[in-house]
Amino acid sequence: MAAIIFNLFVINKSGGLIFYKDYGTQGRLDTNDSLRLASLWHSMHAISKELSPVNGCNGIEVLEADTFDLHCFQALTGTKIFVATEPGTPGIDSLLKTIYEIYTDYVLKNPFYEVEMPIRCELWDLNLALAVRKDGKAGLVGR
User: Fold this and answer.
1) Domain ranges (residues) in the chain
2) What pLDDT does residue 2 have?
3) How far is the CA of 36 from the CAs of 7, 17, 27, 97, in angstroms?
4) What CATH code is assigned to 5-134?
5) What angle (nearest 5°) sits at the alpha carbon of residue 17, between those of residues 11 and 19?
6) Which residues contact 125 (CB under 8 A, 6 or more apart)?
7) What is its main location (predicted)?
8) Among residues 82, 92, 67, 90, which one has the least CA distance to residue 11?
9) pLDDT tens across 54-103, in order?
10) How close are the terminal C-alpha atoms of the chain, in Å?
11) How many whole angstroms separate alpha carbon 72 and alpha carbon 62?
12) What is the secondary structure of 92-127 as a DSSP string?
């Protein structure tokens, strides 16, 4: 059975939501909820680094709940990409790394993109959709 990705978030190093995408109807958030969740995740991620008893902790990578899992990838620049998925979804780490590569190729290398600002780039949208479908991890509902 294909896994289901509910939402995708990209947060800048300051904790601001710069991209949000709903996949399907399940788990849909309104604008305020998506901003609130991104801010909360950024704060929890930062606090977890400080409170971790393990030296060199990079923050929360997976948060497992009964009805969803949150998977996070943090780049060295501080940008965080995280997805809400169906519980127990395997292989999301590689998808997150692929999404980050697309982010660097089609957003950061775009001469018209202003760093740390919301992402509005057609090539990003197109390549993101292709990667999410191709990776096989996305039995996406709707589109």
Assistant:
1) 5-134
2) 53
3) 14, 9, 15, 24
4) 3.30.450.70
5) 85
6) none
7) endoplasmic reticulum
8) 82
9) 888 888 889 999 988 999 999 999 999 999 888 988 889 999 999 999 99
10) 19
11) 6
12) HHHHHHHHHHHHIIIIIT-TTPPTTSPP--HHHHHH
